[in-house]
Amino acid sequence: MNPLELFLVFMKVGLFSFGGGYAVIPLIAAEVVYHHRWLTASHFADLIAISQLTPGPIMINTATFAGWQLDGVLGAFLATFAVILPGAILVLGFTHCYERFQANSLFRRLTEGFYPVVVALLAAAAVFVGESIDFSWETLVIVLISWICLAKKWLSPVWVLLGAAFLGWLL
Fold this sequence. Notes:
By secondary structure, this protein is mainly α. The chain has helices spanning about 5-15, 25-35, 40-55, 60-100, 105-110, 115-130, 135-150, 155-170. The protein is globular and about 55 Å long.
């Protein structure tokens, strides 16, 4: 594993991860599963599950776990730092621009143009994760119960994750 290549791959992911969170999963998968073939789709799906259960942003957790699998502690550090760096630089730049141009209607329309892309990226992440699941009636029950609890805002996502893990174990 070439550490520089690992760093550049995750920096590219960080640079193009508009929407963050679940929207970045297809970008990471495209690089580490399909393009470089460093991980299998099944192994990557496992990393996503672990990333969901650990505290912190899923994008950073997924990058950290993938880096760890690819090159140990150095890989975890490089992947994490690389995926964060572009966003940190962009946030500083956007903050400056926002303060200067927030009243400009063109600037507002440009930023609103990102919303549909974020929805599409979230849908792509759902499809990717859905393709890696072995659907059984038990899985469908867990999906349905989780979706209802989240859509109705009955439970925190933390409790839904813990409940789904318990149901998976129980069923």
